[in-house]
Amino acid sequence: MKVRKMVKEDIDLLINIRMDYLFAEKGVYSSEEVQDIRTKLEEYFTQHLNKGFIAIIAENENEVLATAFMSIVERPPMIAFSSYLVGTVYNVFTYPQYRGKGIATKVMTELLSEAKLLGVAAVDLMATEKGKPLYENLGFRVSKYTSMNKFPLTPAK
């Protein structure tokens, strides 16, 4: 098994992985939705891959086992950090036949190593109950803040 950072030559593979993740989360999409999201993913990955967005893959020969993504943004400096880069982890996904073998741990470890090399000061994520033990073993802790979302963004009433 090889764990590595994805590069621009991997964009088609990256799109397929993201689509697999979306199908696993939601299920069925119309052909129009699939084409629309594939087009938008290609634009996004072409523009952002390894420029504020990193993706790690675990593979065995030409078979994908697992992935994890991170978007990195710069927030205003804090007293503890003169440059405050923050990573948000998402799309941590192991194909069902490879789960329970420690592969997600290896992918996440590599993702965190890449983030450290880039000077990321803090990393956050939203964990499912199933994924929580993995992240706790990697040093993540539940924040005193509650995660809240507004989606889609519409004017407040």
TrEMBL record:
InterPro entries: Acyl_CoA_acyltransferase, GNAT_dom, GNPNAT1-like. Residues 1-157 form the N-acetyltransferase domain. This is N-acetyltransferase domain-containing protein. It comes from Clostridium sulfidigenes. One of its GO terms (molecular function) is N-acetyltransferase activity. Gene3D superfamilies: 3.40.630.30.
